[in-house]
Amino acid sequence: MVEVNGxxxxxxxxxxxxxxxxxxxxxxISKPGKGVGYHSDSFMSGYYDGFNDCYDADDYxxxxxxxxxxxxxxxxxxxxxxxxxxxxxxxxxxxxxGNFTKSEYSTYFPAKExxxxxxxxxxxxxxxxxxxxxxxxxxxxxxxxxxxxNTPAQRAExxxxxxx
Length: 164
Description:
Elements: E1 3-4, E2 7-8, H1 9-19, H2 41-54, E3 70-79, E4 85-95, E5 98-109, E6 113-122, E7 131-138, E8 142-149, E9 157-163
Parallel strand pairs: 3-9
Antiparallel strand pairs: 1-2, 3-6, 4-5, 4-7, 7-8
């Protein structure tokens, strides 16, 4: 296996390949025996770099400015632990006209796998430049948060979390 800057080139290539697959269940990393727990830290570092470098949200359905009037946020949660987890995903958009919230409760985060959920809002409710926040709560009072903004790019916004 070739290492580039301490990272696996094979992991980078697999991450780049997976970034082009819109259905998370069809990705290499989601296959039995290929998940996060089956690879070295070097492989996974390369995988994440490859995924992020090659990810083109234009390939994902629902754009920010699309003619169908939908703004989509894709939340991906990778459970790197050896235990299955359950938790909640809450996406909120605050703005002057009101607070828009979508949630997915009791979401299953299988050990060593990635779970993906999409949240759609009307584009009129989330104009370009509007900020949003994603919270995940899981396990015994564990949580993570991330913030983002509806960018002018015509694509879904991707938010990724990693459970350790």
